[in-house]
Amino acid sequence: MTVIEERPAPPAAPPPRPTNRLWALLRNSWRQLTSMRTALVLLFLLAIAAIPGSVFPQRGVNAERVTQYYQAHPDLAPWLERLGGFEVYASPWFASIYLLLFTSLIGCVVPRLIDHVRALRMAPPEAPKRLERLPEHAELVRAGEPAEVAASVARDLRRRRFRTKVREGEDGNWTVAAEKGYLKETGNLLFHFALLSVLIGVGFGHWYGWHANRLLVGGTDQGFCNTLTQYDDSTLGPRVQPADLPNFCLKLTDFDATFQSTGQPKTFLATVQVTRDNGPARTREFTVNDPLRLGDANVYLIGHGYAPVLKYTDRFGVSQTKVVPFLPIDAMQTSEGVAQFPDVNIDPKTDKRDPALQMGFEGRYLPTAPTDGRATSAYPAENNPMLYLTAYRGDLGLDVGTPGSVYSLDQEQLASGDLENVSGTRPHALKLGDTWKLDDGTKLEFVGTRPFATLSVRYDPTQGLLLVGAVLGLIGLMLSLSGHRRRVWFRVRANSDLAGSPDASGGTLVTAGGLPRTDYPGFTDEFTTVVKAAEEGTP
Amino acid sequence: MAELSNQLMAAAVLAYLIAMVCYAGEYAFGKRSRVGRAALRPAQAKQLVGAGGPVPDDVVPDDVVVEEPVKRGRGELVGMIAVGINVLAVLLHLGGLVTRGVAADRMPWGNMYEYILSTTFIASAVWIGVVLARPAVRHLGLFASLALVVMLGAATMIAYTPVGPLVPALNSYWFVIHVSTIIIGSGIFLIGAVPAVMYLIRNGYEEGKRSFPYTLGKHVPAAVALERLTFRLHAFAFPLFTFGALIAGPIWAEASWGRYWGWDPKEVWAFISWVVYAGYLHARATPSVKRTVATWIALLGFVTMLMNLFGVNLFFEGLHSYANAG
Ligand code: HEM
Fold first, then answer.
1. How far off is chain A from B255, nearest CA to CA, in Å?
2. DSSP secondary structure string, B65-96?
């Protein structure tokens, strides 16, 4: 068991006065809360409370999984929802545990800090009366006056980086008190304060940070600027206003992906044009693991895929070209998507749009279609691009006001029959450059593909500070775990006991004692060395 | 090369098994070996503690081996052979890792199988280091090699993955730093569980318990020594793990995924392990908590590490589940 006092001594009892029960209760609870045992219990609760977050899908990690869970467990899911099971780390019960823990931490370390500062400013305490009772003890005789010997011993201890205090006793005795290993407590306090600062930093980051996602198709005719309306989805911290977002625009000019022969991705490289505050465009490159750092925002490459370019020519000979991103559904980039043409087949004479003649194409894109005709891609790069499409005609349902998905057709319109399959049950296969003639004479041409990149744009103002806090904490931790606090004392007195000695004035009796204040197996060796040095004396 | 790696690993497991048998042999010879006699020390130690009032109970030096002029018995010899074979096993293990790295042309920790091979290698190397520095703990070898064989066997059966390249997300020097420090930290934590278990057993034995698990404690070093070894290993591993999981990991995650911490299942379990081990260090520093209780917390930490090594990859799906990608 360590010898260190567990907690600083409680403040001296207040002068007796009519006991205020409430006050007593509060004070006792506070003492309980800030005790190390409570900290231990709270640490455990924290560990246990973190478990459900790895068992149940978390909205913050993968919102889609939560939806799937709802479908798979329709009875259980609402209950879990109520208990915060899908947002464990934002739930009140999780927060209450770590807030209690950190209150306990503050209550624990602030008094310790005060104590430690006091200890640092105070001289090492006077030697205990009976040094022979200490775990380490030695006696020796040395030549010289007590004062000289004490000074010499103190010199040696100081050289060993002990904090040392020499005191003269009333009876002509001298004592040398020395202490070493303050860094242990300093490190420990640094560590615990760093923990506090990290928690506070995380909180601030949450308040003042923001993030947003955007799927960006390649080409200088595409592109987006950093405003909320141009993102697919976004989250602003509670203290961030949309107008606070920095002003920049991005265009994806090039995207390069290479793959192993097995189809595993090897490298990605996105090249973008960045315009800041309406200044000149600059070309920058970034990749996975190496985001585009813009100072007040970082752009991360999260995913990539292909966007087929489709040209539809309607009954009146008018053509429209669309670049439609298809979302990958497997590692080989088999992708699914939809191309919707709501503004086609408009009679130039009446200029009336007939909602029954809108066109939609749904299907799959295979960058490398296998030779056996299966409808899944064999390789993620475009070695044999193939589109499998089904054509639909009718009301796409885009005008109703409810924003529909841009990756699939409106299911209600399909169910009601307002939108009809006009190409049969087997999807039509199109090679690159192929033109597909539909039943009504209109045409769809597979012009080509463009790459797209899914980007996450983020800003967290405290990230750098957090890193500093974490590193300081680590340093504190190492100091704390490797340090040892220990004290040694020497008592030096004239050797009058040696009666009958030929030189009655020459002898000085030195007693030494050592106390390791924390578990320190090497202390015996150190003590022996110190005593030996004291015996031999240093110049 | 990949084939060679598999063969080396098989040879390493075999060598661990043989070492285990030899350790068991020495164990059976009991106190006739020098190491066996080291275990008899605690009687002395107890007296020492009992004597002075305020004397801390761990002033007993733990590495004093009672050297008596005896001729080396057969037990001694078998024990030396065990250590020799154990060293050989570690070298084979290292060979298996290196050849795998060469075959894949990268660090050999791109998937769960390789990760376990690396972690157990560290555990094993640290173990050998401890044994060479302090022969007195040699009797733990039986249990240490048992733990290694079980983990390696489980890795081969559950997680074997053919050699493959890294996905780009794993291709970063922070990845190397992150994973290597976690591997070293976890390896030391894992091997730290061996003296922890033996401490609990030995402590029971010293308290006079003579039923089954406690009888195993008969020939192992004194409880104080085991407890201190447990603490030293854990105290050494904790900052490494902290750096790997809570600093390097988030740095890499920030560059790779755009957020430094996202409560992905692997992150959750690293956090849980960290909190539990912090709890162990706390408990050990709290005078009112018994050392046995603290040691149980360390073992709980071991369970969470296993969960992180095996369970998370198998049960949960998250960004880290590259383990299954191969
Ligand atoms: C927020 C959660 C906490 C964590 C993760 C944590 C972690 C740690 C760790 C890892 C150590 C061991 C390193 C060392 O010996 O310096 C430690 C030591 C210590 N902690 Fe904490 N701690 C937490 C909260 C607290 C609280 C609330 C208290 C006060 C009640 C406290 C008091 C102490 C003390 C006194 C030590 C020194 C033990 C010694 O003498 O070695 N800690 N803490």
1. 5
2. ---------HHHHHHHHHHHHHHHHHHHHHHH
Mean pLDDT of A422-448: 92
* Contacts with A94 from chain B: Cβ below 8 Å: none
Contacts of A1 in chain B (CB under 8 A): 56-58, 287, 291
Structure tokens at B102: 């060469």
Residues B285-300 pLDDT 10s: 888 889 999 999 999 9
Q: Which one is predicted more confidently, B283 or A143? A: B283
The rounded distance, in Å, linking the Cα atoms of B175 and B251 is: 9
Using a CB–CB cutoff of 8 Å, tell me whether B9 touches chain A: no
Q: Does B57 touch chain A (CB under 8 A)?
A: yes
What tokens were used for A527?
């003590």
pLDDT at B188: 94
pLDDT, one tens digit per residue, over B219-229 is: 778 888 899 99
For chain A, give percent helix, strand, coil, nearest 5.
30, 30, 35
CA-to-CA distance for A331 and A329, rounded, in angstroms?
7
Q: What is the DSSP string of A379-436?
A: -SS-SB-EEEEEEEEE----SSSS---SSS--HHHHHHTSEEE-S-SSPEEEETT-EE
Q: Which atom of ligand 1 is nearest to the CA of A476?
A: 16
Give pLDDT, residue A304: 93
| Predicted confidence (pLDDT) at residue B38 exceeds the cutoff of 60 | no
Cβ atoms of residues A454 and A213 within 8 Å: yes
Please state, in angstroms and as integers, the Cα–Cα distance from residue A170 to each residue in A153, A178, B16, following that order. Answer: 20, 20, 68
Please answer yes or no on whether B59 and A298 come within 8 Å at the CB atom: no
Number of Cβ atoms within 10 Å of the Cβ of A262: 10
Distance in Å, alpha carbon of B19 to nearest chain A alpha carbon: 31
Any B CB within 8 A of A36 CB: yes
CB atoms within 10 A of CB B23: 27
Cβ atoms of residues A136 and A513 within 8 Å: yes
Question: Which domains, and CATH codes, for chain A?
Answer: 29-118 (no CATH), 124-181+484-536 (3.30.310.80), 210-238+245-459 (no CATH)
Contacting B residues, span 80-139, partner chain A, CB-CB under 8 Å? none
**Which residue type is seen at B110?**
G
Measured CA to CA, the distance from residue A349 to residue A172 in angstroms comes to 122
Q: What is the DSSP string of A320-377?
A: EEEE--BEE-STT--EEEEEEE-S-S--TTT----GGG-EEEEEEEESB--TT--SS-
CB contact under 8 A, A36 and B276: no
Of the candidates B167, B258, B317, the beta carbon closest to that of A300 is on: B258
**Higher local confidence (pLDDT), A154 or A18:** A154
CB-based contact, A2 to chain B, within 8 Å: yes
Task: Give the residue from A425, A50, A418 showing the smallest Cα distance to B278.
Answer: A50
Interface of A with B in 442-481 (CB under 8 A): 456, 458, 460, 463, 466-467, 470-471, 473-474, 477-478, 481
